[in-house]
Amino acid sequence: MISIVGLGNAASRVAEKFKKTKNYNVYTMNDKVQRNSKYKFKLKSYENAEEYEKNIPNVAKFFAEIDDHVQFFVVGSSYSSNYSLGVLEQLKNKKVDLFYIAPDTELMTGIPKVLDKVVFSILQEYARSGLLNSFTPLSNTMIEKSIGNIPIKSYYEKINESIFSTVHYINYFTHAEPEIGMISKPLDINRIRTYGVIDPKNLEEKWLYNLDMERDLCYYLCINKDKLENEGGLHKKIVDMLKEKPHNAFRRISYAIYETEHDDFGLCVAHTNAIQEYT
Length: 279
Description:
Elements (H helix, E strand, L loop, with lengths): L1 E6 L1 H8 L7 E7 L9 E3 L6 H6 L14 E7 L8 H6 L5 E8 L7 H19 L5 E6 H8 L7 H21 L4 E3 L9 E8 L4 E4 L8 E9 H6 L3 H10 L8 E9 L4 E8 L7
Parallel strand pairs: 1-2, 1-4, 2-3, 4-5, 5-6, 10-11
Antiparallel strand pairs: 7-11, 8-9, 8-12, 10-12
Helix pairs in contact: 5-6
């Protein structure tokens, strides 16, 4: 089992999506919670960032039964992100994958932009030092591009659904046996990563964050069962397309192919050890 933690109102809405499957225990922490329970924790809200840092909640009891593997979601521009360092400190004995949902910063001003920049930088250093198992930035703007035109009324619903499905399927692939291929284990220093979706016809990537200096690139392809059984030459075609992508001793590529009863789809993960500049 994997425990999902959503810190803040927006991140909690993402975390709630994981309740669709039985593979996760979902914990949400936000100021909309009416009453603390096993999986819900009410956060206090304040008028300035300093107050958050002075009032880190004690969540030892709340996380008493949390799984050893934790996937932690936070939106950097939210005031509740000020709690993240203090809460993560209380999970230091767990394997924590941090998912950082980056807002569109071009029109952002004031305290939210400062918070976004500070939290983004500090959490990367946490990953680099080994305090986090991984740091995965995901950009709302780039997720929107990967989906296409989204109606305003369902904007965040579509974004959150995309984040859930991408993270969930990568989790699934990580623990499933492929039909062919093998995903190379990234070097231990490459703890900063991002995800992307692939067009299975040409393996064109639509990254969910612009990651600098990719070191390990992993391609997960889910191919319809009928194609796997009857389409000769499919494996060679896929491998040839992968060989055309830039690769060398510092930019490694690996792949795995899985079976699906549905339409073909693909996902990819890029890993690096380079601290990402705030943009």
